[in-house]
TrEMBL record:
Superkingdom of origin organism: Bacteria
Chief location: cytoplasm
PANTHER family recorded: REGULATOR OF RPOS, TRANSCRIPTIONAL REGULATORY PROTEIN CPXR
Gene3D superfamilies: 3.40.50.2300, 6.10.250.690, Winged helix-like DNA-binding domain superfamily/Winged helix DNA-binding domain
InterPro entries noted in UniProt: CheY-like_superfamily, CpxR-like_REC, OmpR/PhoB-type_DNA-bd, Sig_transdc_resp-reg_C-effctor, Sig_transdc_resp-reg_receiver, WalR-like, WH-like_DNA-bd_sf
Residue ranges occupied by any OmpR/PhoB-type domain in the UniProt entry: 132-230
SMART domains listed in its UniProt record: REC, Trans_reg_C
Keyword set, alphabetical order: Cytoplasm, DNA-binding, Phosphoprotein, Transcription, Transcription regulation, Two-component regulatory system
DNA-binding region: 132-230
Residues found modified as 4-aspartylphosphate: D55
UniProt name for this protein: Response regulator
Localization in the cell: Cytoplasm
Lineage summary: Bacteria, Pseudomonadati, Pseudomonadota, Gammaproteobacteria, Alteromonadales
Response regulatory domain: residues covered: 6-119
Amino acid sequence: MTTPVKILIIDDDKELTSLLSEYLALAGYQLFCCHDGLSGLEQARSDEYSLILLDVMMPKLTGFEVLKALGGKHTTPILMLTAKGDEADKVLGLELGADDYLAKPFQHRELLARIKAILRRINITRNQQQPSSLQEVNSVSLNHATREVHCHGHLVELTGTEYQILDLLMKSASTIISKAEISEQILKRKLSPFDRSIDMHVSNIRRKLLPFSPNDKLKTVRGSGYIFLTGEG
């Protein structure tokens, strides 16, 4: 018998979490619910879940405060549940380490599709055969066995999605990779108009590398995408 995939939802809307528990159970997922940010943070730190669904407005701690407490060092993917049309919440969530966002109200089928895409991406990455456990370009090294990142010998803490984007850019170093390609390969969905997810993830990677590097290793090519530079910097 297959063990259900464990998903944590941190949301104070008890009616919504109850409905989602029943709906996701039919798809083979086991949903664990926390209805305030403080208890949710404690569970999120337990590293027992394959995915975390995180609401913004909650008692005790907001979703943003939960992300700040996790410090962007988590490896469990986090899908932020934001207010519809609130771009500021989406951007802030991504800046603080969320892997993706979904605007409320949403269709249950849309949430299920997003969950499947995220988990499929994680499973593909974990099962992917690497020709070498160590990948190094321009003084940045990725250890695929431990999923650690070093820049000029310094440990850099990246989220799971940031790690995967950096891995893609480094494998294609000196080649421009479009945002649409990154979205399809990493987020497993087509890039939609005004979607800033990729921009924010790349910005986070750049910000985390810069303290250990005299020069920016990630170049934005306006209107085209991003390129990882191979020249020493």
